[in-house]
Amino acid sequence: xxxxTPRNHRExxxxxxxxxxxxxxxxxxxxxxxxxISENPVVIFSRPSCxxxxxxxxxxxxxxxxxxxxxxxxxxxxxxxxxxxxxxxxIGGACVGGLEKLMALHVSNTLVPxxxxxxxxx
Length: 122
Prior knowledge:
Strand order of the largest sheet: 2-1-3-4
C-alpha cells in the first residue's frame, strides 16, 4: 500500500482543508441548508458574530452537545424557511426556533430528552 501524493498544489489544498461539512459553492443555497440539517443532529444557523448564537452554543455545550454552527449571509437566511431571522436552531432535522425557544426547552426540562432522542446525547 503506497502513499498517494497530490498532483498539484490545488489538490493538496483541497485534501488538507476540506471539512466533512464542506459547503459547495455550486450547490443551491436551499439544497445546502437542507443537507446540513440532515447531516447534523444539532445545527445553529446564524449571522456572523451573533451574540444570541453564542448563548445558544454555551447552553448546548453545558449539557454536553456541540452543535454545528453555520454562519449565513443575509440573502441565505431567507432560505432557512421557518423564519427570516437568525439564529435558528434545528434538532434532529426539525426547526426548534431561536434562543427563546431553546431556553423554554431547557427550563421545562425537555431539552436533554430531545437531544437524547435524536442521538446528540447518550
